[in-house]
Design goal:
Layout: E1 7-8, H1 13-33, H2 37-41, H3 52-58, H4 60-64, E2 78-85, E3 91-97, E4 103-113, E5 116-127, E6 138-140
Antiparallel strand pairs: 1-2, 2-3, 3-4, 4-5, 5-6
Length: 169
C-alpha cells in the first residue's frame, strides 16, 4: 500500500537549511582535506557502503579543481525541487546558491535512519549563469526495485555492496 508518487515533505525551512548546509559543507570540507570519513559517517547505512577512499575517488575531480562550496554557509539556497518524500521513503530536494561568479547547484537525497534524515545521495556542481540541475558527481545508492529513479537523476552512481531496502521511520 505504498504511495506511487512523491508527496511534499513535512519539514520546516530551518530543518531544510540544516540538512542542505550540513551535507554540502561536509562535502566541501572533505574535498578540501581529502578526508571523506566524516562525510561517509554522516550518511545512511546505504551511503556508508561506500568507503571513504571510494568517496574520495568519486569526488576526485572536484578536489582537483579546488572547487569551493563555502558560500553555502552564508547564502540562502533557492530550491528548484521543493523537499518531497519519494515513493521509496527518501527525502529529495534540489536547488542552487546564487553565488558569483560561480553558482553552487545541488541535488540531495536523505534516507530515514534512527528517526533522523541521513545523507543517501549528494550531487554538486558549479556553473555560471542561471539555475540548472546538477549533473556531476554523485555518491548515491540505486533506488529499491519497486521505485523509479528520482527526477533529473544524477549522472554517476556508486553501487552498494549488497541490495538493501531503506527502513521507513
Amino acid at each position: 500500500m505504498g504511495q506511487k508518487t512523491a508527496r511534499p515533505a513535512g519539514i520546516d525551512r530551518n530543518g531544510v537549511l540544516i540538512l542542505i548546509r550540513g551535507a554540502l559543507l561536509a562535502l566541501d570540507q572533505a574535498n578540501k582535506t581529502g578526508n571523506y570519513t566524516v562525510l561517509r559517517d554522516l550518511g545512511s547505512p546505504n551511503f556508508q557502503a561506500n568507503s571513504a577512499a571510494g568517496l574520495g575517488d568519486i569526488f576526485a575531480n572536484q578536489r582537483k579543481q579546488a572547487l569551493d562550496f563555502g558560500a553555502v554557509a552564508v547564502l540562502e539556497p533557492q530550491l528548484t525541487l521543493l523537499p518531497q518524500i519519494e515513493p521509496n521513503g527518501m527525502l529529495h530536494m534540489a536547488g542552487f546558491f546564487p553565488s558569483v561568479p560561480l553558482q553552487v547547484n545541488f541535488e540531495l537525497m536523505f534516507e530515514p535512519t534512527d528517526r533522523q534524515w541521513k545523507i543517501y545521495g549528494v550531487s554538486v556542481n558549479l556553473t555560471s549563469g542561471g539555475p540548472q540541475a546538477p549533473d556531476t558527481p554523485v555518491a548515491e545508492q540505486p533506488n529499491p526495485a519497486d521505485a523509479g529513479p528520482p527526477p533529473e537523476g544524477p549522472s554517476m552512481a556508486v553501487q552498494p555492496k549488497k541490495e538493501t531496502k531503506p527502513v521507513k521511520p
